[in-house]
Model the fold of this input.
Amino acid sequence: MVTHVPAEAHGDERGALLSFLAEQRGGIRRAVLGLTDEQASTRPSASELSLAGLVKHVAEVEQGWIARARGEEPAVRRDQSNWHECFVLVGDETVASQLAYWDKVAAETEAFIRSVPSLDDTFGLPDQPWFPPQGRVSMRWVALHLIRETARHAGHADIIRESLDGKTAFELVALAEAEGTA
Done:
């Protein structure tokens, strides 16, 4: 744990879930701190992952799950023909534009999770081979899934950043605090 997530107000499960999600988002955001788009797009390991790609991916995934929970289609439709674009900047995309988009998505996620009548409410999973037929998940499940997805990639981001310039998550927290972006 690089940063501390404050204890939730008594009985504020939604606040607790959203705080842990925000903490994991912060890990990825700090990983690109001070990097150019070119540096953030570098793939310093055997993996195809880059920091820029991770920022784009987690923003798309978060938006997609909240859209599904609302009964809407994700803003970006991915299939075999364009899946690779989920992890790279294309066209005029920049790290800054992806971070701004993610800010918007995060605000929408928070508003949605706080507004649903119950975290026990469910929605149907898409008809895709990796989901169970007629599968349903709760709003709590989607919040936990977003925490898990973001945390997994925050760990990837730590390794990629340290491989790029040696900066660790602890150093990046200190840098963000010094810059007032923590």
